[in-house]
Specification:
- There is one protein chain.
- This protein is mainly β and 220 residues long.
- The chain contains two helices and ten strands.
- The strands form three sheets. The protein has a four-stranded mixed β-sheet with strand order 6-3-10-9, with no helix packed on it. A four-stranded antiparallel β-sheet has the order 5-4-7-8, with no helix packed on it. Strands 1-2 form a two-stranded antiparallel sheet.
- The radius of gyration is 16 Å and the shape is globular.
- The two termini are 15 Å apart.
- 39% of the residues are buried.
């Protein structure tokens, strides 16, 4: 099984960064031709809006620890999918989403956007590390569209040690997220951590110490 996949250069100043495609979930889960499990779904949640924001830089005026997200989309034959749309949205450092009345953020569009994958099936975004809010572990939302079809809605998660380190920063006033995986409102139905573990991003840093979160999205 290919547990990692190499990232081609996307304007980065280093070589050898690696995608995390997640861990094997179980024999009953769909596998691609390389025996890798398909990226599992997670419900869309209450804060999705199709803002039609084609952009790499999604931060706008929000403050937080910078992070670059890099995604690769592959089909069931382990081949990159060019032209796929990866649409992401996340909360800010205080756990608030843009453009919702209940969040007092109507008409604001920060921390939302989409990109098309290139010929290597890759796309990237510049963002800030998300904060958290009650009943959810720290996460990033995503939808994937291929040939005008919505083919995947999911979350991506972060290594807990990275998350705890980020939350020591004064830009994150709530401090560490106390919610456990099995208490997460979207994951607790699983009764174990397999889906979560398959969706954890590979988070590293470049030579300047900037965070980079990488993930290969497998459609099988």
């Amino acid at each position: 099984m290919r547990r990692n996949k190499f990232l081609s250069l996307i304007g980065l100043s280093f070589i050898g960064t690696i995608f995390s495609s997640g861990k094997k979930i179980g024999a009953a889960d769909p596998l691609n031709d390389c025996n890798d499990p398909a990226t599992p779904p997670v419900p869309v949640g209450p804060f999705y809006k199709d803002e039609k924001l084609n952009r790499i830089h999604i931060v706008e005026h929000k403050k937080g620890v910078p992070i670059e997200y890099i995604f690769r989309v592959e089909d069931k034959h382990c081949k990159p999918i060019a032209g796929a749309i990866v649409d992401i949205w996340q909360c800010d450092s205080e756990g608030i989403y843009s453009d919702f009345k209940v969040e007092n953020t109507l008409s604001q569009t920060w921390l939302r956007g989409y990109q098309h994958t290139d010929k290597n099936g890759e796309c990237r975004f510049t963002s800030i590390f998300p904060g958290w809010y009650p009943n959810r572990i720290t996460h990033l939302h995503a939808k994937v569209h291929v040939n005008n079809q919505d083919v995947l809605t999911t979350n991506f998660f972060f290594p807990k040690d990275i998350e705890d380190h980020v939350y020591k920063n004064s830009l994150y006033p709530k401090g560490p997220n106390p919610i456990s995986i099995l208490d997460d409102i979207e994951l607790k139905v699983d009764k174990d951590t397999k889906r979560h573990d398959a969706l954890v991003m590979n988070v590293t840093s470049d030579k300047n110490g900037n965070l980079i979160g990488k993930y290969t999205i497998i459609l099988a």
